[in-house]
Amino acid sequence: VNSAGGISAFNDGKGLQFNIEFIPLGSDVSKQRKNAKPKHINKVVYIHEDYQLSDMLVKVLKVLKRHDLLVHSGLYSNGQVLDIDSLTITYSVPKTCTKDIALEGEADFTKMVKQVKAKKNAEGTLVLIENKHANVPDSDDDDTRQPNGRKKAKKRSQTREPNAEEEEQDRIIKDLQDQYHCEDKACPYNICWPAGTSVNDHVHLTFQHLRLWASAIV
Questions:
Q1: pTM of the model
Q2: Residues 27, 141: contact at Cβ < 8 Å?
Q3: What is the mean pLDDT of the chain?
Q4: Dihedral of the CA atoms 159, 161, 167, 170 (nearest 10)?
Q5: 6 vs 142, which has greater pLDDT?
Q6: For residues 91 and 124, what is the distance between their CA atoms, to the nearest angstrom?
Q7: Theoretical Cys-Cys bridge with 190: which of 9, 58, 129, 179, CB 3.0 to 4.6 Å?
Q8: Which CA distances in Å does 29 have to 34, 38, 84, 107, 145?
Q9: 143-195, pLDDT tens digit by residue?
Q10: Contacting residues for 167 by C-beta, under 8 A, at least 6 apart
Q11: pLDDT grade, residue 199 (50/70/90)?
Q12: What is the CA radius of gyration of the chain?
């Protein structure tokens, strides 16, 4: 296992700085009352330059207190989701031509980190938009009604609901993520198995590991 770690070489050891803008469900400007401000959440998160995409997602969503979005994140699970991805993510690098670039996988993440590292202040911006997936109930918004007041017929969803076994696996994965969250600041991973006393002995627990583990428990 490649366990890189230690103090970051950027921003006085804190890591690469990302200004986070999170747009949760229900924040669509087109559905807001006139003059109402969208419910965006803004945070600043530092990540180690040796992080992988999944590690960054864990840290960012922990800061946002939306750890629940990991289970339905295709970026976190390498595309292994049952329905619509819970997040759409774009990134920008200030004072460059890199703006609103879709973050769709590890290759995009590697390119983003390289561009942020090249900046003097090692700073970037991430915009996370929450998407509605199968486990999120439909809202009874006004725009779903016809002029006569009757509710519009909704299109049948193209996604399937997870069965009881899959829901139990999701619950176990969340429990494992909480249980094996690493608090060692020298470790570049957010979720790992402490196989020894040294940080170099930490084994990175990927989503695939957690999914297999949950399947064995169920």
A1: 0.63
A2: no
A3: 79
A4: 10
A5: 6
A6: 7
A7: 58
A8: 9, 6, 21, 31, 18
A9: 445 555 555 554 444 555 667 887 788 888 888 888 888 878 777 777 888 88
A10: none
A11: confident
A12: 19
Per-residue confidence (pLDDT) for residue 134, from 0 to 100: 53
Residue 72 has pLDDT above 70, yes or no: yes
Q: Which residue from 66, 205, 49 is spatially nearest to 113, judged by alpha carbons?
A: 49
- The distance from CA 49 to its chain's CA centroid, rounded to whole angstroms, is 17
Six-digit token pair at 164? 């009881």
* Residue 91: strand pairing partners: 101, 126
What pLDDT is recorded for position 25? 87
The closest of 101, 100, 95 to 122, measured between CA atoms, is 95
pLDDT score of 79 more than 50: yes
Token readout for 15 is: 């890591």
Tokens of 97: 């031509």
The owner of tokens 């969340």 is: 174
Distance CA 61, CA 56 (A): 8
Quick count: other Cβ atoms within 10 Å of Cβ 118? 10
Task: Identify any residues that bridge with 101 across adjacent strands, giving them in sequence order.
Answer: 91
Average pLDDT over residues 87-109: 94
